[in-house]
Hints:
By secondary structure, the chain is of the alpha/beta class. It has five helices and three strands. Helix 2 crosses helix 3 (about 65-75). The longest helix is centred in the middle third of the chain and has 11 residues, at about 65-75. The radius of gyration is 15 Å and the shape is globular.
Amino acid sequence: LIGSCRVPPAVIQMEVHPYFQQVELIEYCQSKGIQVMAQSPLAHGDLGLLDDRVLGKIAAAHGVSPAQVSLRWLLQLGLAPVAFSSSPARLKENLAAANFSLEQGEMTKISFLDRE
């Protein structure tokens, strides 16, 4: 795509979450200055992501939800997560993912959850 367009894309939207990390594509996009928007950062609520033991332990250590851990992980990777909800409480919870930080060891543990 980049070789055939006059103006390179500024943003690419793709599915990214701890179980589907797309590391190579993200690294490529970041090397080209393309911002990655992480669509479905909570795995559509499927795959048991929010019940994952690793995410649960990290969440408990920070007093947050596994969803917030997943969103914070994406933020710390430099990605822009796009989480949808019809619940005002869930939207507020999702935004609160910006209010804490994950330690490098926690980031590494999450990186091992990839199922690609």
